[in-house]
Amino acid sequence: MSITQRAKKLKVFTGNANPELAQEICRCLGQELGQSEITRFRDGEIRVRIFESVRGAEVFIVQPCNSPSDRHLMELLIMIDAMKRASAREICAVIPYYCYARQDRKTQPRDPITAKLIANILMAAGADRLVTLDLHAGQIQGFFDIPVDNLRGLPILTEYLLTKNLKNVIVVSPDVGGVVRARELAERLNCEIAIVDKRRPQPNVAEVMNIIGNVEGKTAVIIDDLIDTGGTIVKAAEALIKRGATEVYACCSHPVFSTNAPEILQASPIKEVVVTNSIHLPIDKRIPKLTQLSVAPLFAEAIKRIFEELPVSKLFD
Q1: Which residue(s) pair with 252 in the sheet?
Q2: CB contact set of 183 (below 8 Å; sequence gap of 6+)
Q3: Which of 200, 204, 180, 182 is nearest to 191 (CA)?
Q4: Residue 25's CB: how many other CB atoms inside 10 A?
Q5: pLDDT tens for each residue of 204-250
Q6: Active site residues
Q7: Across-strand partners of 221?
Q8: Could you tell me how far CA 266 lies from the centroid of its own chain?
Q9: What is the pLDDT of residues 55-72, one digit of tens each?
Q10: Which one-letter DSSP state was computed for residue 33?
């Protein structure tokens, strides 16, 4: 049998960042999760072991690079290298949360562009393709010289919001940079948008300056790509309530939830925080206000289409 006649093989593996998501993706695919193990040597170095052949296979490694990002990124790099050396036909890094994405440009003299550095490292390790979700800055796709599929969580969030039958809704962007995202959600919900005008005196510190738009008597839905410390979202919610909003919901794709963000969100006037499971949240961060939606079917469909050499563009509708 010639090489071109051999059946293609699909294999999905996971790192330690979010094995639950990888398992769910495999269930959607009707596929067994690849057998591997990631442990540590006594000196702290990462040890990766692959327990099955990947020769000639198209390998997809599911590994969001959330905190601790250095560990999760290193696990991914070592797994890519292991697959490459084991003669995998093609290796796709499935990174639901792309770390360092907020360091995508120079804002001060001598600043690094770490998002580009991560792209260089992934390609040097041997990744042939990247599948991710809601990059903080879309231009990061251009940092790669390999195909990048930047999937979108907005349709998943929209579908959930529509089931709640919210009345008199207005979509709110927490900053000017998120207006495009807010406008798209507003179009899907058939409502108007408002914008929070803020300044950020230092990283992770936001100060609400003004609300652009009329929110009085309305149900406000704040949409962002991620929630980190919770400070921006909570300040925005407080300002919206002060301006007359009756209820405030917060939505995002990536629940980074640094430090005491869950406690801050739970104590805030936000009625519900709607996120995806792009990042695994431990039990202590799953506050009563939290609703976590699965992106597994989305990633499973993307993997299936890539493997079957079908267009992925349908998933962006």
Answers
A1: 224
A2: 171, 193
A3: 182
A4: 29
A5: 565 656 899 999 999 999 999 999 999 989 999 999 999 999 999 99
A6: 198
A7: 171, 249
A8: 22
A9: 999 999 999 999 999 999
A10: B
Hey, what amino acid is at 80?
I
User: Can you name the residues that pair with 11 across neighbouring β-strands?
Assistant: 59
Residue among 13, 96, 107 at smallest CA distance from 302:
96
Query: Closest Cα partner for 69 from 37, 124, 114, 112?
Result: 114
Q: In the numeric block, which tokens belong to residue 10? A: 């699909």
The number of angstroms, rounded, from the C-alpha of 112 to the middle of its chain's C-alpha atoms is: 22
- Per the CB < 8 A criterion, the answer to whether 184 and 223 are in contact is no
Q: What are 240's two structure tokens?
A: 């919206």
Alpha helices in the chain (DSSP H): 19-29, 69-85, 114-125, 154-163, 179-189, 231-242, 261-266, 296-307
**Calpha distance 168→179 (Å, rounded):** 20
Q: In 10 A of CB 53, how many CB atoms?
A: 12
